[in-house]
Design brief:
Blueprint lengths: L1 E9 L11 E8 L4 E8 L15 E7 L11 E14 L2 H9 L5 H7 L6 E4 L3 E9 L28 E8 L6 E6 L2 H15 L6 H15 L5 E6 L6 E7 L3 H4 L2
Parallel strand pairs: 3-5
Antiparallel strand pairs: 1-2, 1-4, 2-3, 4-5, 6-10, 7-8, 8-9, 10-11
Amino acid sequence: MRERLLVLAKACPEVSQKYESLICVAGITAKGEWRRIYPIPWKIFWGASPKNFSKKQWIEYELEDEKPSDHRPESRKIKPNTIRALKREEYGKIEKLLAERITTIERLESKGSKTASLGVIKPESIEDFFPITNRQYQKSVTKGAQMDLFGKSAVKLEIPKYKYKYLFMDDTDGRTHEILCEDWEVGELYRNCEDYRKTGRYKDEDEVHQKVKDKMLDITKNGAYFIMGSHYRFPTYMIIGVIYPTKKDLGD
């Protein structure tokens, strides 16, 4: 069975036990259902791959099975080699889809990941964005000898030393949440800023973190939606995608 998905989340690569780094992708299907597809090999996003795609873009693929692939009802395994990138969607249409589905952290937690492992919240206010040490960093050292999903040498991917959390409120009751952000975009931003530090453009890690923070707070100042997803092993919800209007979307 083939399925179409509007991609709303492309999470940072995870270190696989057996294979190369894998990407978790999630969004809303053409039928209006939340969907998580996995695994997506990182090499699809490497270089000029014809299967490369981004957030806010429709893709099509073939499912391995129509039934959930784990205890989370939205999860499906797909055949990565069947992925086909389609058109990019207009922000106005994306915002309409998300506005119809807004929830809160409390509601997601009350349902539990076995009922709703994906959802969207709209922060009332974003108070901070700060770094934490990435526990997968050391695991990445041994990645070079591993194989990819097709039995070939894995593409080496530098896992970032730090990840980041948002501090925000998602309703008017005043409860503040501190949630890990696993959006791919954040990982790439940190990597680019760290490269500047290594070449002397930024003086130290503190400046790197400040640049990342400034950028992420700036792009969400005109409103943002957080795509939430639960962890596979733990009943913890993370921000797996940040959707926000660009200057073009705002008409600037």
